[in-house]
UniProtKB/TrEMBL annotation:
Keywords linked to the UniProt accession: Amino-acid biosynthesis, Aromatic amino acid biosynthesis, Isomerase, Tryptophan biosynthesis
Organism of derivation: candidate division MSBL1 archaeon SCGC-AAA259M10
Pfam entry (one): PRAI
Xref: SUPFAM superfamilies: Ribulose-phoshate binding barrel
Pathway(s) served: Amino-acid biosynthesis; L-tryptophan biosynthesis; L-tryptophan from chorismate: step 3/5
Key word Membrane present: no
InterPro entries per UniProt: Aldolase_TIM (IPR013785), PRAI_dom (IPR001240), RibuloseP-bd_barrel (IPR011060), TrpF_fam (IPR044643)
Protein name per Swiss-Prot or TrEMBL: N-(5'-phosphoribosyl)anthranilate isomerase
Stated family: Belongs to the TrpF family.
Reaction it catalyzes: N-(5-phospho-beta-D-ribosyl)anthranilate = 1-(2-carboxyphenylamino)-1-deoxy-D-ribulose 5-phosphate
EC number: 5.3.1.24
Length: 215
């Protein structure tokens, strides 16, 4: 069964709702350098993640400039994973994992029109080898574009790695089934595709999404 990560939670009510629907991972976005209606304060993220059941993995999504920023944030919020959107090196990602004791979700992004897929694949391999999971997103200003990318490249990344991959980028109830068929990821990740209003999850879309993943 493909696992599901729901990202960009902004309320305890939404967190409870997606967990009730069967989420395996939930993510809160904190301290990012791009505008998004899903960014919340560390204090709010801590309160939201505190109500998440123990059998659901808690993810803090952030965009640090350096290792120290992540270490400072990790002390403020209890999480199972740190999802790092940044240009930190593979050695810095390993350092974060060793010094915080948290598992790491590395991120690689694919442009909608990619003229150099091999460079993307090689970069993804390096990040994946330094992290516990690798999230593949659509390239934009820090991710969260709500757009899909070339899933053929995602499939090649999956084939080149032992690290499990999470497929993200424009996934919603209408396309997640095809995405799973094409890429065969360990997990899928959705945020804006489960919203009727920016930053607030729609229970009907969430239910449809989980139904499609389970088919």
């Amino acid at each position: 069964m493909v696992k599901v990560k729901v990202c960009g939670l902004t309320s305890a009510e939404d967190a409870q709702m997606v967990c009730n629907n069967g989420a395996d991972f939930v993510g809160a976005i904190v301290d990012v350098k791009v505008p998004t209606p899903r960014e919340i304060s560390p204090t709010k993220a801590r309160k939201i993640l505190e109500i998440v059941p123990e059998d659901v993995e808690k993810v803090v999504v952030t965009m640090p400039e350096n290792v120290q920023e992540v270490k400072n944030l990790e002390k403020m919020i209890d999480s199972d994973y740190l999802q790092i959107h940044s240009h930190l090196s593979e050695s810095q990602l390993r350092e974060i994992r060793e010094e915080t004791g948290r598992k790491i979700i590395g991120v690689t992004s694919i442009p909608q029109n990619s003229p150099e897929p091999e460079k993307i694949i090689n970069r993804a391999k390096r990040i994946g080898e330094a992290t516990d999971l690798l999230l593949i997103d659509t390239r934009g200003e820090g991710g969260g574009t709500g757009k899909t990318h070339d899933w053929e490249i995602s499939s090649k990344i999956r084939d080149s790695l032992k690290t499990p991959i999470i497929l993200a980028g424009g996934l919603n109830p209408s396309n997640v089934g095809l995405a799973i068929e094409k890429v065969k990821p360990f997990a899928v990740d959705a945020a804006s595709g489960l919203e009727s209003d920016p930053g607030r999850k729609d229970s009907r879309l969430v239910r449809k999404f989980f139904d499609k993943v389970g088919e």
